[in-house]
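Run log, item B.
One chain of 501 residues. Sequence copied directly from the ordering sheet:
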Amino acid sequence: MRTPESGAWRRTSPIAILFFIGRILRMIARNAWQSLAPLFALLVAYQGDLVSKLTLGGIVFGVAVATTSLLSYWFFRYQIRHDSILIRQGVIKKKQLDIKFDRIQGINTQQNPVYRLLGLVTVNFDTAGSAGSEGNLPAVSRAFADSLRARIGNRRTAADEDPITANAKPAALVRLDWRDMVRIGLADRRALIIFAVLGPLMERLGDDADEVVASYIGRAADGAFQFGVASGVLIIVTAASALLLVLALISIAAALLRYHRFELWLDASTLRSSGGLLTRHEHSMDLSKIQTLRLQQGIVQRWQKRFRMSARQATASGKDRSQKIFTIPVVTAELADRLRLRFLQPEAGRLSQDPSAQGFNSVSPHFMRSRVLYLGLLPALLCIPGFWMSMGALSLLFLFWPAAVFAVAYRSWKCAGFAYDDNEIVRCSGLLGYRTVGLLFRKVQRVTVTQSPYQRRKGLASLRMQMASGGVRVPYIDAAMAERLRDYILYRVESSQRAWY
């Protein structure tokens, strides 16, 4: 295996200009008004018709993006040292990154169609303490990326692997097919974003366009009901179903683009995945870096009897936590239990995160009663006399509010539970769906036991465990049990000789 050269400052392939163009366009999209304000001012000051202004604006915009991308590529350098990677970048504002191998939690790669034809990839480094990818090496060769990954992996294990073994790809733990693409697409809640976009888009069409659309819908409805009420309702239902079908197909197509030929495998102690139709995404995570394992199931996934599994790493802040999540988009409950055993063994992994599994302890029913009392009954009793003068007997409708709160609180209580052994704890919660979170005791950074006045009267408490990837709370359990768990977790943290991250 070829090893990256050390000590020399190097450039990436000139094709990296495409990477810098994409980064500039994304930056402009995030800060559109600030980025395009000078261009707008130029177009307003320019004397000419609309076509001339648009032509001038397009030329200026294209030249500016191309020039900035060329300069960004020209001033981009990197150097491979024995224990780190140095990256110098920036045209006006210079920046140098020193990424230590020991801090790298994962090496991810992306390969768009152009890169695939040329055998190039973009390498992203995820490091401990950063909210997202700290550094990038755009448009480097696949062989270089593989050798760099092997070099960092060998440094972690303090032993070089045999080249034949290193190049052999282990058997896949998970492999998704077209049926899984359908499941992922139907369960993806992001498809609903389209509905949110339609409203502002219609407003931008103007009053005239609104009138045209309203007139067209009116004529269509009149024509539908000329066939009778039943036929008219059937036509409207068919149109609504067609719209939902289009949205579902769009969501399935998005899943296909992101997860086509998705594979997950375990390379020694490193978890790796690859997938994507046009752009291939490769992600990696060292098993020792896993902070929490999460299993989520929405309404559609409950019908499919599938889950979404994710492993979270340490992150410095709440910004862009998605960059620190390793996701397996669809698994069965049995597969999830097998995977978590592989990820956490021999230390842990024997508990199940299937919410229907036996062994979960229920939280106190007072978890439900306190919400009905403080969020349902008391607000209703305060609103009825407050609105009686203006609404009269209609104010009694507020009595339906406690019933609604009770339904939500009861469902939340039924979904709430926890299970633990000597090494880990699993917390279960949910409302319409389920979410279970599993964590190792030794990786807890802070543990607290809190009691509200209501909990204190009932001898209950809430246990909160703070991780580097977020907090996990077990509410309304016996106060003595909460204190015993707190003391035991602190003991495991203090007695462990292994790193928490």
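Observations after the first pass:
- Confidence is low (pLDDT under 50) at residues 158-166, 192-210, 318-322.
- The first strand starts at residue 77 and ends at 80.
Flagged for discussion on Thursday.
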